[in-house]
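How it folds
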Amino acid sequence: MKAQAKKILIISYYWPPSGGSGVQRWMYFAKYLKKLGWEPIVITVEESQASYPILDSSLLEEVKGIQVIKTKTREPLRWYSHLVSGNSRSGIPQGAVKTKSLFGKIAAYIRGNYFIPDARKGWRPYALKAAQQLIQNEKIDKVITTGPPHSSHWVGLQLKQQFKIRWWVDFRDPWTDIFYNASLYRTARTLANDQAQEKTVLQNADGVITTVGGKLHEQLKAKAPQQNFTALPNGYDADLMHATSGKPPKEVFHIVFTGLLTENQDYKTFLEVLNRFSESYKIRFSLAGNIDPHIIATIKNTSPNIEVQHLGYLSHQKAIALMKQAHLLLNFIFKGAQTQMISGKLLEYMATEVPILSIGNPQSEAGRFLMQGSAAEMIEAHQLKEIERLLERTIKGKGNLKNKFPGIENWSRQALTQRLEGIINEVY
């Protein structure tokens, strides 16, 4: 007789067809939990009403066969996007707060002080109602809420108070300590309110999962000394990595950047070094992602001898293929976020075996991780000679230099899901 699958409820605002990196963490956890004999059930938001900055329908293939319940929502971000960009998606904030204009300052103040903990909190009552019905009907006793948006965790807290469940909180990014909060003109009263909400959630969850440990765990431990914190990083999908092909061109030195690029990342000093190399070498610089046209224009205008191509947002598989077509993969850590995260993109970069240059603090969690690679470095933006040295090494080793990472298989999505299963099964 076949054993009955163990049910677990995942409450995640981001879910396919939402694109971008935020959706992939629990999309893959759900996929591989199912392969491990679990029955993941997902509550998310109806995409026609969601504030998704990016859509990627190709990701739907990854979650076939997983039960998904989609709810309504009421939130202001789509209206805000229309005001700032004339489009319901392109103006949704991503990774940076624009405060150069008066309108930007006013919008940041409203966002920072009137939408606590975030501007997607209008989803909370709809998600809660769906979760209450599901727990009663399906007899579910294990729940995970993932944020951002951290308002999702309030759903878990209310379920914990109402039912006999075990509830884990997942912080893909920090809550009150996230780097861009400093740009939101928050009042002392607002900050105290937000910190109180975070503290309540942290102290009442059965466990807290983060993408990194270190200083982030120290900060969180001060808010909930009795809590159990576990670092469960983002990873790469080994099946997708092996199934996707790509070869770098022979006629140029190809540098690739994928993901989010903002003015809160130190990319300009790297361009200074790269421009000097372009006097001696033929260089192609490919960027993929939703990147502000102003930044692309700046790169093109300051790099006259470099072939710059902006490919826009690519599907996940096409982004992996582009990574494999590089001689050098490029990354920029957000200023102020050095201790807060290791992105899934860095894991995918590492799995390609292509050399990596990341601009940021080498003593950060991401820096110490990268240094384990045989051809991967985290270098501060002002260390121009170090950047030159790495560029020289990769150009001379073009096509032959490989970035080997010991035990990379332990960072696959499947291996990390097995670790997640251990967390879920652990008795607190």
